[in-house]
């Protein structure tokens, strides 16, 4: 049996699956495609997470697009983080090209141009369905990790949330949180000290500075209402295809703190909301996180621990996470070890550091008698990748250099008119794009402070009035006393009241009576 035949059997046997699957391309040997040796990914294992890596321009985005399209066709909703802004073309069919036909002929898979149901979402003021979450939904623990607070500061945050829960003060946006921080060490200082212990101004000041830093990255647009419901990511269209939800992130590339804040809140909400799936035959939702290094490069140790925990636990909810980045070393080892599917496009060895990274990357893949993995990693062409997946029993499939199939949708962005038409037909826009600013901690505490000030002012006025009355009474008493003294001092009165005068008057009266 020829080596090519052995290789064909090696690929086919290793990719046998009884359940549903996604064919992503055909295996290659010595740089040539082996037609019919299809590389397939079982849907059953798609919630085991994955990685799509490779140098710029090697085809990562197109591989992401292929997976998203096929998942949608299988009725599985998808969430894409579109940082470069080149995924909106999923809403329009591919215009086709002779090179696409040639590629698919080599692969041995039919090509069908089609569009997919797409929803455009946004974290910022760009057009799209607005994504928001309340501060209360984050809770003190997750918020403390995002803000990278110390243990003492995290304790203060927990006390603030407890106070708001006890007093029915909703913390909806950052304005509310800042107001509570200020109140705890100013107008409400005595109240906090009596019921919750003294709050240090040094701690609240440090927390406030961290909040302002988050605000500067645009978080004030993200925190608030109407809060996005994660169940709306699970929609299926009238043809039974899963919606591809694309979050436009082109304007927050330089704001990684906002990006990681959103990602963690979304994952935490999904984990808290979605029911346990157990060993399901198909995932509930697949998420692709493009430019994943933006999350990990800026993450603190507690934040990395939180990400690692979520990656480990969320697959039980039927959710698969796929990190898209230039180099696998961008992803922490603790997370990398949890990823079942690896699609590795070409890497470039320009420096000694690059060569070392390639060697480390090669060690992450199963050994193969057909490939020198280190060599293949630098010789792959555009749209070609090394693939290692998990079969239905959770075992790694044979390593295969693969010619990837082409996307069925457009490999380009939508025009302004196409985007406008897509957004105008969105049902979610009507639900989430109306800004709400209901009464919350900011307004309620201001009202409380105003009432306290009014009461204090009233009591002060009352005291001043009472003091004034006392003073008036004293003045009257002094006047009466002065009048009495004045009367006694009057010369006429003195004459009239003198003993001599009285005796003279009585003497005259006596004489008159005798006569």
Automatic annotation (TrEMBL):
Region (Disordered): 453-488
Source superkingdom: Bacteria
Source organism of this protein record: Seonamhaeicola sediminis
Name of one Pfam family that matches: HerA_C
Domain (Helicase HerA-like C-terminal): residue spans on this chain: 32-505
Compositionally biased intervals (Basic and acidic residues): 453-475
Lineage, highest ranks first: Bacteria, Pseudomonadati, Bacteroidota, Flavobacteriia, Flavobacteriales
Alphabetical list of InterPro entries matching this protein: HerA_C, P-loop_NTPase, T4SS_component
Protein name from the UniProt record: DUF853 family protein
Cross-referenced CDD domains: SIMIBI (cd01983)
